[in-house]
């Protein structure tokens, strides 16, 4: 029984590729788990287990053991029906938010959950994923390609609080430049994965799009983490809305009655105020972040909104309206066709 429990623990301690574990590291983990043994015993157990299970070793020195990406997850006891449903819902609704390497690591769980749900009788629980759908009104863009090795190195640096040497190509640049990054966290914004961090020994926080990283190397040096930094608070502060000003502003905008109905059910802010005007339009007043994202959102309503304040924001929309009018003026269109 002792041997069975030790080997069972051994299989649980072996990571999935591209991670690996050496026999010496495995011996230490077994000892910590309460199964002291010898290095030779661990080596013999691995050789026997590799015949019955899908574990493999590489040619490194020392050799490392791992579960292949496609290997069936070793899991005792078996996955419950409710756990299987959770994995199925994760697969259905979170896949668009996860890069391919993350999905590869979860694939064995997805496969196992599918088998569990297929065997449920009667079927109500198994049919639940077909009764739920999630959609966004925003225009969905295709996610950019992320190099799996780059993403893995980023994850390792984040987990170990280690500095990263990054070969990074800024948008519009033809060539990548080397940077030393102190990783602080990962933020996903509309299919794009950003590494939040500082560069070298500077304190200002940067956002680096992971798909623009051409190579990443984890360094031995510890990452420099600003005291009191909180990733959730930072993400909630509006930094990813592309700030246009240092302070929030009080938005005053007139919406047509139909458009304004949505703000009764989904307020723009906790202090939002709606006032119906004599002409039937509705005045919305709300304290919001002064960001580029706010401007893109307002532009999306087209002629259904009139920005009243602040005055500077109204002037921006007035100028934009003039430029749009000139762009779509009949004379401008005729001139464009003639040039074609």
Write the SSE topology.
Blueprint: H1 2-13, E1 21-22, H2 23-32, H3 39-52, E2 56-57, E3 64-66, H4 81-94, H5 100-118, H6 148-160, E4 162-168, E5 177-189, E6 192-199, E7 206-209, E8 213-222, H7 231-236, E9 249-255, H8 257-265, E10 273-276, E11 282-288, H9 292-299, E12 305-309, H10 311-328, H11 330-339
Antiparallel strand pairs: 1-3, 2-3, 4-5, 4-8, 5-6, 6-7, 9-11, 9-12, 10-11
List keywords for this structure.
single chain, alpha+beta, Arc Repressor Mutant, subunit A, SH3 type barrels, 5-stranded antiparallel sheet, 4-stranded antiparallel sheet, 11 helices, elongated
Q: Distance between the terminal alpha carbons, to the nearest Å?
A: 83 Å
Helix content: 25-40%
What is the tally of helical segments? 11
Report the CATH C-level class of the largest domain: Mainly Beta
Number of domains: 4
Q: Which oligomeric form is depicted?
A: single chain
CATH architecture of the largest domain: Roll
Describe the structure.
The protein has four domains: 2-66, Arc Repressor Mutant, subunit A (Orthogonal Bundle); 81-131, no CATH class; 148-239, SH3 type barrels (Roll); 249-327, no CATH class. The chain has helices at 2-13, 23-32, 39-52, 81-94, 100-118, 148-160, 231-236, 257-265, 292-299, 311-328, 330-339, and strands spanning 21-22, 56-57, 64-66, 162-168, 177-189, 192-199, 206-209, 213-222, 249-255, 273-276, 282-288, 305-309. 15% of the residues are buried. With 340 residues, it is of the alpha+beta class. The strands form three sheets. Strands 7-6-5-4-8 form a five-stranded antiparallel beta sheet, with helices on one face. α4 (81-94) packs across α5. It contains eleven helices and twelve strands. β4 and β5 form a beta hairpin. The model has no long low-confidence stretch (mean pLDDT 86).
């Amino acid at each position: 029984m002792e041997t069975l429990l030790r080997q069972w623990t051994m299989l649980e301690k072996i990571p999935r590729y591209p991670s690996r574990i050496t026999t010496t590291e495995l011996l230490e983990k077994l000892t910590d788990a309460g199964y002291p043994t010898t290095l030779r015993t661990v080596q013999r157990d691995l050789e026997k287990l590799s015949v019955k299970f899908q574990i493999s070793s590489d040619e490194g020195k020392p050799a490392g053991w791992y579960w292949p990406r496609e290997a069936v997850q070793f899991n005792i006891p078996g996955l419950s029906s409710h756990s299987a449903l959770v994995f199925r819902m994760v697969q259905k609704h979170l896949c668009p938010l996860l890069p391919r390497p993350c999905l590869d690591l979860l694939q064995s769980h997805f496969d196992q959950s599918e088998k569990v749900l297929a065997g449920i009788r009667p079927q109500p629980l198994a049919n639940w994923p077909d009764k739920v759908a999630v959609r966004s009104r925003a225009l969905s863009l295709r996610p950019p390609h992320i190099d799996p090795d780059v993403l893995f190195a980023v994850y390792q640096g984040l987990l170990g609080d280690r500095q990263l040497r990054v070969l990074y190509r800024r948008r519009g640049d033809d060539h990548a430049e080397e940077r030393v990054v102190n990783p602080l966290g990962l933020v996903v914004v509309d299919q794009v994965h950003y590494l939040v961090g500082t560069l070298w020994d500077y304190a200002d926080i940067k956002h680096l799009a992971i798909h623009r990283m051409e190579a990443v190397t984890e360094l031995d040096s510890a990452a420099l983490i600003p005291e009191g930094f909180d990733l959730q608070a930072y993400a909630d502060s509006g930094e990813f809305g592309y700030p246009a000003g240092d302070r929030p502003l009080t938005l005053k905008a007139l919406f047509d009655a139909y458009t304004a109905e949505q703000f009764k059910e989904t307020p723009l802010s906790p202090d939002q105020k709606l006032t119906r005007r004599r002409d039937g339009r509705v005045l919305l007043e709300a304290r919001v972040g002064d960001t580029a994202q706010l401007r893109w959102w307002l532009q999306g309503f087209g002629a259904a909104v009139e920005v009243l304040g602040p005055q500077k924001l109204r002037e921006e929309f007035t100028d934009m309206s003039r430029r749009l009018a000139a762009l779509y003026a009949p004379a401008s269109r005729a001139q464009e066709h003639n040039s074609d």
